[in-house]
Amino acid sequence: MSPQIAPPAGYYYPELIEHPVVVTNFREIFNDHIGAHVMAFVLHFARGLHVYLPQQLQRQWKKMPRDTGTVHLPEATALVVGVYNRFAGLDRLWG
What we know:
Layout: H1 14-18, H2 32-46, H3 49-57, H4 90-94
């Protein structure tokens, strides 16, 4: 976990509490949002969008060779490193 997950004791001093500024933190970002974000990246790279999007910005429309560019996810293997238990159950999405 991040050491800055919450402000240190005494951070919310009276003047800050009374001020109209909005203070936020990392609370609840480690829930299902991170799993959805990871799946978006998996699909992004599996379909070759990391190649097509920069081309689109440059108005280039090049086709990739037919034997490259996409990854058939049911036959793919993923290695997830260093994420504690935040992705528990993510393997069910891949089958």
